[in-house]
Design brief:
The chain is of the alpha/beta class. The chain is built from six helices and six strands. It has a six-stranded mixed beta sheet with strand order 1-2-3-6-5-4. It is elongated. The protein starts with a helix and ends with a helix.
């Protein structure tokens, strides 16, 4: 409190000083937090959806899902990076090193807006194949899964429901 008074009185007249500024009206929430259970992790268990993703993830992974109804928007990567940095900085989360934290952005397909954000962030695309990408150049490992491509390559009809594809099986129609 006293410091802000000092800044307001002794700072330059062209500078407005605000204090305790909320970052958003809603509390920050992760879409998903994946926690690796090392005692149960087996390489042969790749799950049934996003099979090319799980083995790549760190001990803690923050994931954001963008869908047709809630698409990727400008600065979405900045938001994901901020979540990762906040999670890493919080000592209650017990993240020992940057290598213990990764992020995943799951999108129906890559869009021009996403490409612009990747370029503006100075990141580089590394094609991991089958619809998976690594965005290189940040403090933490960051992966991207393209639902449309992954669903086709892995023949995952339920995953297709979150992208542009049409369901093909009775299971997906239910």
């Amino acid at each position: 409190f006293v410091f802000v008074i000092l800044l307001r009185k002794r700072g330059p007249r062209w500078l407005e000083v605000r204090e305790e500024v909320p970052l958003s009206e809603e509390p920050l929430r992760l879409d998903y937090l994946f926690l690796r259970k090392p005692e149960e992790a087996r390489l042969e268990d790749v799950g049934q959806s996003l099979r090319g993703l799980w083995a790549r993830l760190s001990k803690y992974t923050i994931a954001e899902l963008k869908t047709l109804g809630r698409p990727y928007g400008s600065r979405g990567l900045d938001r994901l990076w901020s979540y990762m940095h906040l999670f890493f900085a919080n000592p209650e989360n017990s993240v020992d090193s940057a290598a213990d934290l990764s992020g995943v952005l799951i999108v129906p397909s890559r869009t021009p807006t996403l490409h612009e954000d990747v370029t503006a962030s100075g990141l580089a695309w590394l094609d991991l194949g089958s619809g998976y990408w690594e965005l290189q150049g940040g403090r933490f490992r960051l992966y991207l899964a393209e639902i449309d491509t992954v669903a086709e390559r892995e023949d995952d009809d339920l995953l297709r429901l979150f992208g542009h594809g049409k369901e093909r099986t009775l299971e997906a129609r239910r």
